Protein 1
Amino acid sequence: MSGVRLVGKVAIVTGAAMGIGQGIAAVFAREGARTVIADVDADAGRATEDALRRRGHEATFVRADVADEAQVRALVAAAERTYGALHVLVNNAGIGVYTSVPDTSREQWERCLAVNLTGVFLCSKYAIPLIKASGGGSIINVASVHAYQNVGATAPYAASKAGVVALTRVMAIDHARDGIRVNAICPGWIDTPLIRSVFAAAPDPEEMRRQVTRRQLLGRLGTPEDIGHAALYLASEEASFVTGTSLFVDAGLTAQLETW
Ligand SMILES: NC(=O)c1ccc[n+]([C@@H]2O[C@H](COP(=O)([O-])OP(=O)(O)OC[C@H]3O[C@@H](n4cnc5c(N)ncnc54)[C@H](O)[C@@H]3O)[C@@H](O)[C@H]2O)c1
């Protein structure tokens, strides 16, 4: 299925070599966006670029660590050089550090905040002037249900994602006048390499996957494309009255109290 909702638009999707970012890039490309795939994993990033080009889409891989200011500046410059404009930035790159405060080393804490929160800051900092100069657009931050509700032993991850949601609101306030809408998506359980590594660390990975799946109101884990469709909505004109909010794409995970 291909559409036209992003024809004429240029998008950067960070962390797009696999998982949710790859799903977002695939949905954007199908809708006509010229898409820059940014990631630290060059092999997987080039494979994603190849796959999209083979389907006839315009896509370019740029190796960039979102926590590195010089690389982020070069990423935004590459988007401008390649496609001449920028309309959509998806801050998706993120890492999971699932530990309690005493069990977290300072290095783990700082790396988690650097990628998940400072990465959003840096990419937005360098993208905003170009989006503004391109006539406005949309920034979409991939936060998490962990920004709002919590489980134990996820301190660095939860803190970083709550920060992303606050940053989303402030950027929405600051840049409405620039024609830039800023929103967050809070995914629930999405079947990606990250989540597969969480299952793999359990004593019985298949049993953990079955238990998690059983708890989902809609009877399945999400797919990267489920988040891609939400990002497409927020990037499109259909969301032209939507800014500063969080969209939960979590199969009702955050709607429920404990089961009776
Ligand atoms: N999978 C889920 O259930 C879930 C739920 C809620 C939120 N999220 C969030 O969604 C985003 C994507 O998660 P995922 O499950 O697809 O993860 P993933 O680990 O499967 O994929 C993440 C991608 O980001 C890239 N990446 C990591 N660090 C980077 C950096 N410093 N700079 C650039 N790229 C980097 C990786 O190479 C990889 O390609 C993350 O922000 C994550 O916190 C995921």
Protein 2
Amino acid sequence: MVGCLREVRRDYLGTISRAAREVGGLARIVAGPPGWRVVLYSVASPSLAAEVLGQPDRFRKQAPGYRELRQALGDNLLTSEDEVWHRQRRFLAPLFTRRRILTDYAPVMVGEAERLVARLRVAAAAGTILDAYALMVEVASRISGRILLGTDITPAVGLLQRFRTINDQLLGRAVSPHPVPARIPTPANRRLSRGLGEVRRIVDDLITDRRANDPSSVGTDLLSLLLRAHDAANPADRLSDTEIRDQATLFLLAGHDTTAVTLACTLVHLALAPEWQRRVQDEIDAAVHDSSPTATDLDRLPWLGRVVHEAMRLSPAAHGIARSTRDDQVLGGYRIPARSWVEVSPWGVHHSPAVWPEPGRFDPRRFDVGPGELPGGHRYAWIPFGTGPRACVGMQIGLLEVQLVIAAVLQHFTITTPLTALPVHAAITLVPTGALPVRFQPR
Ligand code: HEM
């Protein structure tokens, strides 16, 4: 599929959807004139997506997006490969066990959801319309901050605000055939490097502070766990301060932005679908009554889970998962040359009419399937967290957080919006194009 570079950059998601619709599960997208050309292989079929993501030796993480992230944030669990990644994953997997999530992180989410409800009561009484995205960035930042740092999240809030500009600038660079080398002080490069420098300094200070004031820290926040982390296979092996800084920064970035976008999009999808709000509200009233919804209630809230799954199908925060080829590869019967950019597109899979009939319609019943049946008819029809060995390590945290916050909001409020559709565009993650006005009315 041939297009103009400006068009692809302006409407990246539209291009990916069009490729899935008109070309199929694997499309070669060529944009821009020779010498100024971007070529990417967009994968929008569940089985090809699983093939690419399931084989990290064939499909590597050297694509432009990861190149930019690595340069910006250092090598971390998201960007590393091979032995470095294995070592980091061994260190970090114990931070993400189900038990730890339920005992240490879930209460933080419930507490922050209660805080949000109190704040919304004030806005509702004044009849104020709020921007769901700004609101959810704040909620997700506070939750990420508290999970990472314990109770004192003041430094994290400044940190997360700086990520907003970094996110947009990194995708601009990734989708550029010749990004200006970072060492050349263009205004954009200076902004990016200033932002990154500040982020590094804040995290470094946090680590120094923690080491100085609480060297034998027994805290259960992620930073304490990172400082104490060791390799079970080799207990003398510890993470260096730089590694701790790079992982902590990644957790803040990977954890808050994706979750904030998912929360904001879910609220708007619900505001546009009053019948689904009522369905979830009835379920919450019957299962939870007046107490705050907690992680143990979720088993009794199946429609809440389906609503969240359907919102993540339509609006996958990680809209594209980039890979690259080191050698020539064959995928779906087509040759992909060495050093190509292959983009597995959850957006493309989720919006493909070949996988999901009427893909643009919000219908949580798609996830109400019988035993042995699969939503979308395929194990990999729903891949907002990726799949294979590099699938999201924070998936349980993200899903839990979105469900608990949405449950708390719907328990107390009915939501409406003047929007008629959800406006989003692609940065490194999906981002709303402008404000997402939502009104919260007490039930
Ligand atoms: C709704 C929320 C989230 C979404 C949609 C999401 C999405 C994803 C996706 C698609 C990947 C795979 C990337 C790839 O294969 O290249 C990924 C990986 C990752 N995510 Fe998430 N994520 C979410 C929440 C979180 C949270 C809360 C954390 C951390 C606390 C987190 C940390 C990570 C890390 C560290 C990886 C790399 C894992 C590895 O390669 O071993 N994510 N995420």
